[in-house]
Description:
Layout: E1 2-7, H1 12-24, E2 28-34, E3 54-58, H2 64-74, E4 78-81, H3 88-93, H4 95-117, E5 125-131, H5 155-174, E6 178-183, E7 185-187, H6 196-205, E8 210-213, E9 219-224, H7 225-238, E10 244-247, E11 252-254, H8 255-269, E12 281-284, H9 299-305, H10 313-326, H11 328-334, H12 338-347
Parallel strand pairs: 1-2, 1-4, 2-3, 4-5, 5-6, 6-10, 7-9, 8-12
Antiparallel strand pairs: 9-11
Helix pairs in contact: 1-7, 2-4, 4-5, 6-8, 8-10
The structure holds nicotinamide-adenine-dinucleotide and thymidine-5'-diphosphate.
Amino acid sequence: MKKILITGGAGFIGSHVVRLFVNKYPDYQIYNLDKLTYAGNLENLSDVDKMPNYHFVKGDIVDAAFINQLFEKERFDGVIHLAAESHVDRSITNPMEFIFTNVVGTVNLLNAAKAIWKDNYEGKRFYHISTDEVYGALGDTGSFKETTPYSPHSPYSAAKASSDHFVRAYHDTYGLPTVISNCSNNYGPNQFPEKLIPLFINNIKHNKSLPVYGKGINVRDWLYVVDHARAIDLIFHKGKTGETYNIGGNNEWRNIDLIKKLIEIMDRKLGRPEGTSLELITYVTDRAGHDLRYAIDASKLRAELGWEPTIRFDEGFEKTVEWYLANEAWLNNVTSGSYQDYYRKMYGE
Ligand code: NAD
Ligand code: TYD
C-alpha cells in the first residue's frame, strides 16, 4: 500500500496522470492536491473521482503551514509535483504569481517531504515535473539534452528553472530522493483554451480570428498528453534517484504549419469547404522574449527505461480535435467567467 500525492491533478497533464495512476494502481491511495485556480477543473476527473483509491484535497502549495500539516497527517510515500502556473503569456503580465506557486510552492513541498521522511528515504520519492523551456531557445538545428545548460527567457521558464534547481539542491544537500523530467509541449483533451491548440480549435469553431504571434515560424515539439503520463509513470517507478530525464515527441512543427493542419481538420469536421478558416489567420505582435525553437533529445529515457511515444501525431491531433468538438459543455464552462476577462485583456475582444 502506497500513498502518493499528485499536485495539480485537476489541471491538464495532472488529470491524465491521476487517471492513469488511479486506474492502474488500485493498491495505491492517490491524493490529488489542487488549489483549483482558473486552470484547475474537477470535471477533468469525473470518470475516476468515485474510485475508492482517489482522494481530493483543495489547497494551496504556497501555504507552508497547510502543506506541513497535510504531510504530517497523510505521511505520503511519494510526491508527483505538477501544480504550477503554466502559461507563458500570463507570466509576462503577472510574474509574481509564478514565483509564488512555481518556486515557493515547490520549496514548501520539498521541506514538508524532508520533514516527514527525516533521513529514512527507503521507498520514498519526490518527482518534480518540469518543462523543456528551462533550456532556452534553439537555432535551426540541435536538440535539448539533459546536460544542456539552463537559459530560461520567460518569467514562466525562469520560475520553473528555479524550482528545478531547488529540487536538485535538496537532493545534493539533504539526500532527498528526487527525480526530475523536462517535457516538450503537450497536446490533447482537457487543456485549458489559452494554449495554442485548444484556443485555436475554439476560435475556429466560433469563426474568431486566430492570433498568430510574429511570423508564425517558431517551432515546438508536440507530445500527446497520455504519452507524457506514461513516461511519468515509468520515471516515477523506474527512474534513477537524482537523475533528470527529457521527454519529447520527436515531432517538431512550425506554428503556422501546425495551424494550417488544424484548419484542414477543423474545416473537414465542421463540414466547411476546404480552406474556409484560413482567412481567420491574423498575424499579431510577437510574444516578448518568444523562444524560436524547442526540440528534445529523449534518447536517455528510451535507452534506460524503454519509453517511446505510442500515439502518432496524425492520430493524436485528430482525436484531440474530436474531443473538443464533442465536449462543448466542458469548453463553455472553462471559457466563461474569469477566463473571459483574461481573454479580453490579452486579445482585446
Ligand atoms: P495547468 O495550468 O493545466 O494545470 C496546473 C494545475 O495546478 C491546475 O489544476 C491548478 O489549479 C493547479 N495549481 C496552480 N497553482 C496552484 C497552487 N498554488 N497550489 C495548488 N495547485 C495549484 O498546467 P499543465 O499544462 O497541466 O502543466 C502541469 C505541469 O507540467 C506544470 O508543472 C508545467 O510546468 C509542466 N509542463 C507542462 C507542459 C505543457 O505543455 N502543458 C509541458 C511540460 C511541462
Ligand atoms: P503555447 O501553447 O502558449 O505554449 P508555449 O509558449 O509554452 O510553447 O504556445 C505555443 C506556440 O504558439 C508558441 O510559439 C506561441 C504561439 N502562440 C501563438 O502564436 N498565438 C497564441 O495565441 C498562443 C496562445 C500561442
